[in-house]
Amino acid sequence: MIFTRITGTGSYLPGQPVSNQALIALHALDSSDDWISERTGIRARHIAAVGETSSDLAFHACQRALAAAGRSANDVDLIIVATSTPDYIFPSTAALLQKKLGITNGAPAFDVQAVCSGFIYALSVAEKFIRSGSHRCALIVGSEVFSRIMDWSDRGTCVLFGDGAGAVVLEASNSPGVLATALHADGSHADMLSVPGQICGGQVTGDPFLRMDGQAVFKFAVKVLTEVANEVLHAAGLTVDQLDWLIPHQANVRILQSTAKKLGLPSEKCIVTVDHHGNTSAASIPLALDEAVCQGRVQTGQNLLLEGVGGGFTWGAVLLTF
Ligand code: ACO
Prior knowledge:
This protein is an alpha+beta fold. Helix content is 34%, strand content 26%. The chain folds into 2 domains: 3-175, Thiolase/Chalcone synthase (Peroxisomal Thiolase, Chain A, domain 1, 3-Layer(aba) Sandwich); 179-321, Peroxisomal Thiolase, Chain A, domain 1 (3-Layer(aba) Sandwich), CATH 3.40.47. It has helices at residues 20-27, 33-40, 54-69, 93-101, 118-132, 155-158, 214-236, 253-263, 274-277, 284-294, and strands spanning 3-12, 17-19, 44-46, 78-82, 109-112, 137-145, 163-173, 178-185, 193-194, 197-200, 203-206, 211-212, 245-248, 303-310, 314-321. Strand 4 (78-82), helix 4 (93-101) and strand 5 form a beta-alpha-beta unit. The protein is globular, with a radius of gyration of 18 Å. The model has no long low-confidence stretch (mean pLDDT 97). It binds acetyl coenzyme *A (ACO).
């Protein structure tokens, strides 16, 4: 039987952290450090430089993940990038990343678009490729430059997001590995969180900025994150107390705390990085995972529950032994 294991993690944050105070001053926002940190837990985020793209951030994260796995770029036979802020409409960010990494072996490369659940979708897809025996070494990346789709006059959204990338190397293995995955979507909630614009005839039509019903998102997120966590635990025959770490999408510290509480998980077992990354959408889970690995908190053999929710609406979880 073929199992799948994460063999390396890496991440990359552009530039220096931008504090709430600095962001407020930069965009003349009618807000305060107290309001932002009390309502969201966010204290700082990173913002990509002009011209720095998702494939650039992904490149650095992938180099680190490959080094951690002890792999060279041409060992990779599958590349999946989760992003809602691609470099171009096409080609895919994954194809551009393949070129930047110097992967010349013809490995398939494609993007997954599931907004903040994108990394969970990408990891679940790759796990099925590897388990089928068709591929052996996948690069799974979440990379975002959400600063490009912020309306800097909308204080209700622009303080929440940041830029960054995280990556994992997922390989075929004789031992588990990924224990269970679950993916879901409900398109009837498309309007709750969207960037409702398009390019048509050389012009942007509609609205090219992120719009969100914050309170509706909050309630929906806590509900489905709790449900999908229980779903994968049940599928794998594990209980909450057998979990070493919950690594949820980093949207808002109150969402993370409410989810952990509803699951009956001590809050110390929930990895939190939203305070210094902001919400980096598809990048947030692999960024949090890599930080916890680098700090020595996440260790080989531990049970991790990774889960995300985002626009679509989409949501999902991956339960694995690291
Ligand atoms: N600074 C100061 N005041 C603000 C700010 C700000 N940055 N943003 C909004 N306000 C004001 C509002 O204008 C409103 O003022 P009013 O009462 O005069 O009308 C007041 O604060 C309260 O606004 P609410 O929207 O009711 O505030 P709430 O307590 O719901 O907090 C927040 C808003 C933080 C967005 C919250 O709803 C939330 O966290 N929702 C989850 C959304 C989220 O995490 N989205 C991430 C993307 S989705 C995802 O990743 C899954």
